[in-house]
Amino acid sequence: MSALVPPDSKAAGALMALLAMGCAFAMYAAANADTPQTMRNLKLNYIEESITRYTRDLGHLPSSLVALRVASSDEPGWRGPYALADSHSTLSVAYTIVDAATARYRIALAAKPLKSGELLPEIARERRVDFAGSNYLIRQSRAPAP
Predict the structure, then answer these.
(1) Is 0.70 surpassed by the pTM of this model?
(2) C-alpha pair distances (Å), 107 with each of 13, 31, 41, 52, 91
(3) 140: Cβ–Cβ under 8 A, 6 or more apart, which residues?
(4) With 50 as the cut, is the pLDDT of residue 47 above it?
């Protein structure tokens, strides 16, 4: 750890939180690997937490999910990375800012076919983050299975 970040750095705390979230996600995923729907919900939960931490640090929503991993030169309060490199690339996650002034956003996972022929329906969540860092679910929907 000391080779990556000085021990007194604020980034050390952010890095430790990111590693802890990733480990918790991996452990829960391993225990529940037989339920694809659970994995999709975990993926959304992880991204939501990353967006909340970003918003708490910077006072606004990220412009894209890439902003959770890569610092912009004009973001002096950035303490990320807020998400691991592949945290949203393995599943098709759509991210949309619904209202920047009230920090409302929408994330969605597209429907996904399984090897068994079953189709997992789309999952969409609309959330609002207050600038103190709390994350409120506004709406969640699942498309009906065909």
Answers:
(1) no
(2) 27, 25, 11, 13, 12
(3) 123, 124, 125, 126
(4) yes
Amino acid at 145: A
CA dihedral 36, 15, 89, 117 (to 10 degrees): -10
Q: How many domains in the chain?
A: 1
Q: Is 38 helix (H, G, I), strand (E, B) or coil?
A: helix
- For residue 109, name the pLDDT band (cuts at 50, 70, 90): confident
> Is 103 part of a structural domain of the chain?
yes
Is residue 51 exposed (0-12), middle (13-18) or buried (19+ Cβ within 10 Å)? buried
Give the separation between CA 63 and CA 65, rounded to whole angstroms. 7
Which domain range does residue 133 map to? 32-71+87-142
Q: Is 36 part of a structural domain of the chain? A: yes
Phi first, then psi: what are they for 65, rounded to 5°?
Answer: -70, -25
Q: Could you tell me if residue 27 is inside a domain?
A: no
- Spatial distance between the Cα atoms of 81 and 57, rounded to a whole number of angstroms: 12
Beta bridge partners of 120: 112
Residue type, 100: A
Asked, for residue 40, whether it belongs to a domain, the answer is yes
